[in-house]
Amino acid sequence: MTRDTGAPTFEEYAGVIWPSLYRSAYLLAGNHADAEDVAQQTLLKVYRSWSQVVRSDSPDAYVRRMLTNTFLSARRPRKRRLELLTDTPPEHGAVRAPQGPEDRMMLWPHVRSLPPRQRAVIVLRYYEDLSEQEIADVLGCSRGNVKSTAHRALKALRAALGKEHDGGRES
Predict the structure, then answer these.
(1) Which end of the chain is more exposed for a tag (fewer CB within 10 A), N or C?
(2) Which residues of 14-29 are buried (b: 16+ CB within 10 A; e: fewer)?
(3) Is 131 in contact with 81 (CB distance < 8 Å)?
(4) Three-state DSSP class for 92?
């Protein structure tokens, strides 16, 4: 802690924030190498603007926004797609809805295939448990934009899972 303000030093803050920063970066990027890159790039930006971060009303929200913007601005060209290698080929036939944590893992490759902005909305909403307004604040857009992006992402996920739209609420 600094002596005069009681605020943590950058080093203290970085040590505390790293696990959640890396987790969010992994959920956005979809693999460990890119997650580390995005998280480290974010920490560099945090270091450069530490005085602004520490003075903000919510440093964690400020850093989360920096992380999301770093991820979105560093998008790779669409033609470069990573493939998820598995030991067994995918089964053909009926796909059931994910029930538990192990079943949700089957959804993850489909989340990774979403465009970066849609993936960011899904990660912030369903993995980070942010409200639509909080997501809008992180992404710097309107709540309506978050809702429409989530709708498109969920529609794509349903299609990828081979389900017909059931008319239920998306968020």
Answers:
(1) N
(2) beebeeebbebbbbbb
(3) no
(4) coil
Cα–Cα distance measured from residue 124 to residue 135, given in angstroms and rounded to the nearest whole number: 6
pLDDT tens sequence across 107-148: 788 888 899 999 999 989 988 888 999 999 999 999 999 999
Contacts 24+ apart (CB under 8 A), 61-66: 61/134, 61/137, 61/138, 63/17, 63/21, 64/24, 64/128, 64/138, 65/137, 65/138, 65/139, 65/140, 66/42
Residue 130 DSSP class:
-
- pLDDT single digits (tens) 15-42: 999 999 999 999 998 889 999 999 999 9
Task: Label residue 75 left, alpha or beta by phi (over 0 means left) and psi (-120 to 50 means alpha).
Answer: beta
Answering whether pTM is above 0.85, one says: no
> Which domains does the chain possess?
1-75 (1.10.1740.10), 100-171 (1.10.10.10)
**Three-state DSSP class for residue 43:** helix
Q: Residue 106 corresponds to which amino acid?
A: M
Say which amino acid occupies 86. Answer: T
Compute the distance between CA of residue 150 and CA of residue 153 in angstroms, rounded to an integer: 5
Q: How many CB atoms lie within 10 A of CB 105?
A: 10
